[in-house]
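@channel sequence for tomorrow's demo:
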Amino acid sequence: MLTTRHGVRPLGAPDLDAFLRLTAQDPVVNVFADYRARTTNLEPRWLGGEMWGRFEDGELVAACHVGANLVPVQASADDARTFAERALTRGRTVSTIVGPHEAVRVLWNGVAGSWGRPRETRWGQPHLELSEAPLAAADPAVRRTTRQDLDELYPACVAMYTEEVGISPEYGGGADLYRARVTQLMNRGWSFARFDAGRLVFKAEVACASPYAAQIQGVWVPPDRRGEGLAIAGMAAVAELVRREIAPVVSLYVNEWNTPARRAYATVGFRETARFSTVMF
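structure tokens (generated this afternoon):
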């Protein structure tokens, strides 16, 4: 039964097929939501939150992931306004709003008066895709990480996160949870790195994946090794491995102001297909 006059209700396991048809309308942009649906069966206890769906004439036309992140899925401006109205009825429980720019902009405008000042907003994040062989030569030394690498890998992940987000993932007692996440990605074969004489000099992870795409996160080179081409060759290697063994398309989104990273991704062959935005609390 629909729970609001707008035709919005939480989705569950019986809605999985309809939800996957929705994400398949843009399967690369929607890879996070697709991944979450497939791994949780849309069960709230596994989602750690809810997946809202908006219906018109009984058909699912848009959705919104509501967990640690608020992520609109195939949401028009009208859909986003409707999801914002629903979000206002429960208060802010998310740490970020992230997704396609226009939907995020409308969502944020709808809740801004009640949710308070965000810690940071990033409005023009290019969403990039690579669906063919990389244009740059791959670094043959890049490999999947193992537990033996954890002493080098974990501090690098903390440094990358802190540099990117502006706050340490260990802040407020989060070290155990973050270490578990790093280890989880490693165990899945989703963590890649290059080591020189035992020191990590490049890393990247797959954040989420579906049969259609894999989204890369956490690309990082130590500050004293930047400018050597490690990110270009490293990302070419990661893209080859991911496309061969995980999903046919590799995607990521990058901050608009990060010119060196954007230049590196373009050299590898990534092309912009959309614009994302992120609001962080």
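heads up for whoever presents: The domain at 8-117 is CATH 3.40.630.30 (Aminopeptidase).
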